[in-house]
């Protein structure tokens, strides 16, 4: 089953944007995410609608951060993406009148709900400033060892 990696990709892009001043074109961000600029524009529009990024059209324009990274959480970005399904597994629904299926689904649905609530709670605790701080530490460590980071 194919995994939805949009959250990871958008966080990647936002951290790149936080590290360098100035606007980023959709084409530049698309290269960082290995996707099409149209996909970037669609994703970034959701972030813009919530005030996390802004866009300027024309020569020298592009996307810039519009918020304080210490106030932007993983959950905020997840919500801006439309709250895609967190778990790939689900309950079987081929025989809804089957008592066995009902019992199994009740147990699974409760466990899946608990897992999603815990994950969303954790997403709400992690800010992009925390990710940016971690990135700076990692970059500092690489520089000490004479290595280079992935752009």
TrEMBL record:
It comes from the Bacteria. GO terms for cellular component: cytosol. One of its GO terms (molecular function) is DNA-binding transcription factor activity. SUPFAM superfamilies: Winged helix' DNA-binding domain. PANTHER family: HTH-TYPE TRANSCRIPTIONAL REGULATOR YWGB-RELATED, WINGED HELIX-TURN-HELIX TRANSCRIPTIONAL REGULATOR, RRF2 FAMILY. This is Transcriptional regulator. The lineage of its organism: Bacteria, Pseudomonadati, Pseudomonadota, Alphaproteobacteria, Hyphomicrobiales.
């Amino acid at each position: 089953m194919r995994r939805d990696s949009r959250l990871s990709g958008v966080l990647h892009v936002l951290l790149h944007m936080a590290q360098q001043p100035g606007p980023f074109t959709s084409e530049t961000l698309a290269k960082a995410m290995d996707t099409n600029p149209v996909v970037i524009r669609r994703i970034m529009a959701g972030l813009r609608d919530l005030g996390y990024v802004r866009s300027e059209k024309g020569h020298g324009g592009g996307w810039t951060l519009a918020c304080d990274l210490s106030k932007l959480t993983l959950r905020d970005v997840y919500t801006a993406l439309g709250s895609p399904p967190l778990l790939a597994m689900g309950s079987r629904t081929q025989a809804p009148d089957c008592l066995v299926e009902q019992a199994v689904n009740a147990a699974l649905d409760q466990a899946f709900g608990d897992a999603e609530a815990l994950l969303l709670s954790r997403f709400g605790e992690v800010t992009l400033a925390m990710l940016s701080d971690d990135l700076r530490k990692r970059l500092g460590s690489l520089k000490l060892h004479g290595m280079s980071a992935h752009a």
